[in-house]
Amino acid sequence: MSKKYKPTLIILGWISLGILGIFLFSIGISSFMYEIVVSYKKDIKIIFSCIGVFLIIFSMKKFFSSIFNGINKHNSNGGISRNDLNNIIYKEKVLSKRPKVVVIGGGTGLSVLLRGLKEYTSNITAIVTVADDGGGSGILREDLGMLPPGDIRSCILALANTEPTMEKLLQYRFSEGILKGQNFGNLFIAAMNEIYGSFELAVKETSNVLAVTGKVLPMTLENVKLIAVLEDGSIIQGESDIPVKNKEIGSKIDYVYMEPKISFPLSGAVDAIKEADLIVFGPGSLYTSVIPNLLVNNIVDTIYNAKGTKVYISNVMTQPGETDEYKVIDHVEAILKHSREDLLDYVIANIEEIPNETLNKYTNDGSMPVVLGIEDERILASKNIKLIKGKLIDVKKDYIRHDNLELSKLLMDIVKKKK
């Protein structure tokens, strides 16, 4: 007999034994079967019941033992491990029953949060801005007439359950030749867009290939352009040019808007918002990642009328040319200015100090910590917005990021409090 089929036959044998056990147990407890088969002999009825129970337990134990032995043998050849299987079962049976969370934004900040959030719930929908027009995404957008894939790709990888090699491949950026500066993951999504003829389907199928936890959706399928109006009256067109040109001008951003002014949200994004237990804004670039999502038609009213609690996560560092000298309250007021005064229920802000050696590298580039002003807490309270303060800094390789696990825990606590 081929070794290939031996494990399967063994497993089938244990299943057959279990079926026999169920049959004998049924005979033992059924008065009808007892009367027909054993002719009122009470002792045999008890024996059948005991044998049946024993065979059921024994066969189940052997069945699962065979499964795990097969997994261990497969793992020795580079396959799935028992820990991997446990994680899959945990996510399928436990995390699938956790709160439904919608996270709105874009950029690095959003992907960092998603990596932590997927450890607490699998009911995640990331709704991502498509206003990006710089770097490799901008080139693909101009050359192929597609929506920018960069922020979408980062969020898909953050929620993906894939091997490290595959993640490295999709994060790889070409350094030479005609593809210099292009990210392989962006090219992959571009190829999927060509295959399916739809950016929405391209994102969905890419998510399926990478076994994504939850969903990643573009906020809109419209080809939008972000425009900033500065306090001195200057106008800057294009998401990637806003921080760069504003640094040269030296003014503050008054407000941003998008063209075309009529753009409609993705229906899947609307449905996710309506069903969510928690709706989170940020973290991420205030004017170029978070707020653009609020400029899509009717999305503010959809968010406001949704049952979920609305939370804004303030950035830990200012962004040169975009949020220079901004405190927590400045970030919040910009969100409300582009939506409505009573949109938010909570604001989460960092109060942990950043190590000087890391901070110095940021301050040299014009970036400063986002701090709570003396009046910030009082102003937030006057707007009926609850403030949650925490030590939320995570420094890796001299990069300052949010502690995604601690941040995710705070978000889950908010849902628990509401329930």
From TrEMBL:
Keyword 4Fe-4S: no
Family statement drawn from the similarity comment of this UniProt entry: Belongs to the gluconeogenesis factor family.
Biological role stated in the UniProt entry: Required for morphogenesis under gluconeogenic growth conditions.
Pfam families for this protein: CofD
Transmembrane segments: 12-34, 46-64
Protein name per its UniProtKB record: Putative gluconeogenesis factor
Superkingdom assignment: Bacteria
HAMAP family: Gluconeogen_factor
Organism from which the protein derives: Tissierella simiarum
Signal peptide: none
CDD domains: YvcK_like
Organism placement in taxonomy: Bacteria, Bacillati, Bacillota, Tissierellia, Tissierellales
UniProt KW keywords: Cytoplasm, Membrane, Transmembrane, Transmembrane helix
Location in the cell: Cytoplasm
Keyword Transmembrane: yes
